[in-house]
Amino acid sequence: MKLCIHRGTHQIGGIAAEISTATTRILIDMGDELSLDSNFVSAPLNISGVTDANGHCDAVLFTHYHGDHTGQMLRIRPEIPLYAGALAKDIMLQSAEHGGHKDDALSARMQTIQTFSPGEPFLIGDIQITPFCIDHSAADSYLFLIEADGKRVLYTGDFRLHGVRGKTMDKILDRRIGKVDAIITEGTTVSRTDGKTVTEWELQARVRNYLQQYKYVFVLCATTNLDRIFALARAVPRGKYCICDEYQKTLVKVVSERWSSLSTFYEMPKLNTPGSSILQGFQERGGLMFVRVNRQFERIIRQFDPQQSILLYSMWDGYRTKPDSTIPEFLSLTGTWVELHTSGHASPDDLRHVIEKADPEIVIPMHTDAPQKMQTLCQNRRVILLKDREELLL
């Protein structure tokens, strides 16, 4: 079995990794690069047999729907099969059809995605893939156990242990995976020196407190960070309003339809969209409103007493502090704003925990701008630092 990370060995985002045997070749993710520059255009991924006809590729698998993992989907030759989780496919389709601007070509390609089920292995050629649903800031995210040529390789994708479903990781590792020969792991946070990791449950508790202190609580968060929307919506007490726009409500409904049978957490919360009668009720009773940085929500927020309002900034701080950001002006609409966020990625301690449980012979970091720091987390492991497009025999 061979590994080739086409992009992502020394950067966060823009991911594409290849696993191959003598007869089968698969790609995992095909993403756009990340940048805080609003004029930035990601460099196109050019991969023989994937973006051109100079070779073959048997399938492309997507770990989750974030653009740094899926953004170059249309560069994949149309005859190559695509695979993703069923809920992730639904969310991708909603985003392509309704999320800001409609993209017919992308929607058509997404319609062809074949779906896999958590914990159920499937074969592509002589490679067996077992997908496991794990916690990340995107719903229906996956890690893959990849088995071929007598080797067992764990490809983590993006994950964390401090989300609402973080405890599932240990169960998967203990009961379904066990020891592996190699782990290919994200390392987004290894260069960060943040303090204690805040859990999603702690964020929910803080929102309950803010709802007691303020009549109007506005939350600015990513529309596709759906676990957070479910958690914060559930913090709203009976008698108060929870409001979001139609697109956000549609995405919540999609998740609920797929997952409410798995957990009561995903039962459809009572969400209202901001019509005149709903806003009148919100004016009288108060509650929580999910907002986005646009003129519609700017007009809405201005209708409410800023002294009784708080705006919770629930996104990565880099979006707020980039030079051309309009977020600071938006945050000033209320009398008070505070940060209420936690990362979608595993802390360094949790990265170490997962690696130790998987007990691999080798560790290959990716999705990180400081791969060399992985060695300090795994001092008793062999850490291999690859370059983009470098092949490794596993």
TrEMBL record:
Annotated signal sequence range: none
Query: Which CDD domains does this UniProt record tie to the protein?
Result: metallo-hydrolase-like_MBL-fold
In which domain of life is the source organism classified?
Bacteria
Q: Which Pfam families match?
A: Lactamase_B_2
Q: Which residues form the Metallo-beta-lactamase domain?
A: 13-214
> SUPFAM superfamilies, from UniProt?
Metallo-hydrolase/oxidoreductase (SSF56281)
Q: What is the name of the protein in this document?
A: MBL fold metallo-hydrolase
Query: What is the organism of origin for this protein?
Result: Zongyangia hominis
